[in-house]
Task: structure prediction
Amino acid sequence: MAKSSSLNVRVVEGRALPAKDVSGSSDPYCLVKVDDEVVARTATVWRSLGPFWGEEYTVHLPLDFHQLAFYVLDEDTVGHDDIIGKISLSREAITADPRGIDSWINLSRVDPDAEVQGEICLSVQMLEDGQGRCLRCHVLQARDLAPRDISGTSDPFARVFWGSQSLETSTIKKTRFPHWDEVLELREMPGAPSPLRVELWDWDMVGKNDFLGMVEFSPKTLQQKPPKGWFRLLPFPRAEEDSGGNLGALRVKVRLIEDRVLPSQCYQPLMELLMESVQGPAEEDTASPLALLEELTLGDCRQDLATKLVKLFLGRGLAGRFLDYLTRREVARTMDPNTLFRSNSLASKSMEQFMKLVGMPYLHEVLKPVISRVFEEKKYMELDPCKMDLGRTRRISFKGALSEEQMRETSLGLLTGYLGPIVDAIVGSVGRCPPAMRLAFKQLHRRVEERFPQAEHQDVKYLAISGFLFLRFFAPAILTPKLFDLRDQHADPQTSRSLLLLAKAVQSIGNLGQQLGQGKELWMAPLHPFLLQCVSRVRDFLDRLVDVDGDEEAGVPARALFPPSAIVREGYLLKRKEEPAGLATRFAFKKRYVWLSGETLSFSKSPEWQVVTQDGTGALHTTYLQCKNVNELNQWLSALRKASAPNPNKLAACHPGAFRSARWTCCLQAERSAAGCSRTHSAVTLGDWSDPLDPDAEAQTVYRQLLLGRDQLRLKLLEDSNMDTTLEADTGACPEVLARQRAATARLLEVLADLDRAHEEFQQQERGKAALGPLGP
Result:
């Protein structure tokens, strides 16, 4: 049984941030750290004191993590970025509420003495001789210390305190990975037993030394189990001061999910029940796992569950049947066609997540060219008279301000100039739309047409598809392209407004023009003739989109069965091989297209060229890869960790520096073959829509949700068992249907009980191993 721990993190927005630039504004971004390791960085929101990021991350964690921190910084073109403030959340604070954290939290000042990182390796012995007790502290080394000097390194030394005595190690210059290998001995003084405290400091020639971290051990620990091994450095104990809102606040959503994932065979009965659910009549189903999940799951859990279910059925080649099952249930209980799929039901969320899982490359192919143009050209567009900046042209060209009518005409021309290519790309993309999406839309089209066959509802079958494709897929991607990986950065305020106008227009087209002229946005009226011209083209596009033959399995993405040879990530990076002499200049890095799979890391000059892999000698080589920004770096690191997860030969330590001038620049060791000085971080990875499927983890999520409804299932089984023939006659219930429902309920309860027993058995085994200790079998 494997344990898993993951954090669902959403950096929503900030408010009332202080101005850090001379313009009276800031360019804020947010760093997300787990135990002082940066795992994610939001994009920068330019010129804003109330930034909206809306960026979500799923961070897969080591089981022993301690703290999650958010740092808000102001990006500067010249010099260091300014730190605005931070939020620290302990593991205990996150787990205090099972629903997690969703609130505004005031930013706190960043105290340099509290910003520590890294670990220290110690070996402590308590000895006795004729003169009394003696403490021998062997200070071996430290790693990943915080850089305190402008050079990006530190000059660390250790100071050991025991009672009223203290000793220091020597100072190791210019390294964050010092090796001391020094033994310090301190004699016990009369009085009460004292704790042992080891502090690390950065030595400075001018001014006071900078604190790097500390560890402390109680007298009881020293006596019973003297410390030996690596220990995480901690700040000086002090309460974190709330700035009272003077530094602004950050809204975050955080939820910790910890699970024990059983072996695959334990989930097989539940998987069979789930697969059988989509085969039967959906309309009268009340006892299957899917029907129960649909009834019980609410709020944010529904989106997470929808993603897991879609992945499960994708892996079995039954995603189409799963979506059809939910569609039939949703359509059957909808009386008003105008409300069809308008709520965040399990059916709506599942289709939305299905499009993201299967259709993201399609989305990029359709929208990226025009979105890139909008970002690069930075044209000013505005139709709302209340928001028009009529003096803009005077400031730019000195030819006088445009009238409101002239501004409207200019903006209308620019908007249609972008909208035209967007609509052309969409209506011309039938052949590029993934077959799995087209088959799902075909089923949706048929079910809605069967439910609402009346002439007055002839547009409902089109609106059902366009509501997903345009309103939940294309329009959100246009509005926030960063969240759909269409851009690396968020748009500036002017570009954001242009994207909002384009997204509104695409929404209107997706609604087939039915709401044009209604509501408060009458200033969009000049665009209506163009939008109405697009509606007939969209109807024709939807007809061609659902005109598809073939079975469902043809549309399943290749990653549903993720072989080691499948590509995990690919793209352009800057690359160079290790060179024995000197540091590399920027010209030594060459642009190469890199492929990463579970077996190889390969590259070539372009995607079309022959792939170059390692030579046939089998020797290890050091290769340096350079990313263009922190976001790309985190994505590649996460992909490398995922690809190497099953590799038993992973190194436990590495050298983050280079071997130059007969020594490693990181730890100053003189042997090229010296063991690595920095711990390799193999546990923290970022979840991504393109991740391989994990049926066991997904089945565990479904099991966890079903447990919430077990009491309801038991009550239902009891009621059905006591129902007699008279009640069946009075209610008009079919005896065969009731019998099937009772059998399905009983079988589901039995499957849940079996999984309960399996979890308990594995937990007992773990407790037994823990009791035996390291010497046990």
Notes: The two ends are 17 Å apart (CA to CA). The CA atoms of residues 118 and 499 lie 43 Å apart.
